[in-house]
Amino acid sequence: MQADEILSHAVEALEDVKGDKITVLEVGELTDMMDYMVICTGTSKRHVQSLGQNVVEHLKSNGLQPLGSEGREMGSEWVLVDLHDVVVHVMTEEARSFYDLEKLWDIKTREQ
């Protein structure tokens, strides 16, 4: 599966469970590790877990086994899902504001 397809499936999975402020960072020219980084906000820790789980399940049902996932245990404020060329970060509003990944990468973003 190509990176653009993975990205499309990941964003769709987040939208299906009402992910908020979905942002895509195109980082392929800055790193060899991934082409895209997706950042999404959940309204609560439980919502963050649900969003991360939906991304994993949606991609698996479309034939892509994620490389890994971190933070999916209950009570986590940040879930990371590694989808090969796409890495998805789902965070509470507080965690997203604190870590400010968009500023850290300091590149042009495109809102979904």
From TrEMBL:
One annotated GO molecular function: ribosomal large subunit binding
Compartments reported by the entry: Cytoplasm
Predominant location category: cytoplasm
GO biological process annotation, one example: negative regulation of translation
UniProt KW keywords: Cytoplasm, Repressor, Translation regulation
Gene3D superfamilies: Beta Polymerase, domain 2
Transmembrane segments: none
Pfam families named in the record: RsfS
Cellular component terms per the entry's GO annotation: cytoplasm
HAMAP family referenced in this protein's UniProt entry, alphabetically: Iojap_RsfS
Function: Functions as a ribosomal silencing factor. Interacts with ribosomal protein uL14 (rplN), blocking formation of intersubunit bridge B8. Prevents association of the 30S and 50S ribosomal subunits and the formation of functional ribosomes, thus repressing translation.
Assembly, per entry: Interacts with ribosomal protein uL14 (rplN).
Family assignment from sequence similarity: Belongs to the Iojap/RsfS family.
Protein name listed in UniProt: Ribosomal silencing factor RsfS
Encoding gene, per UniProt annotation: rsfS
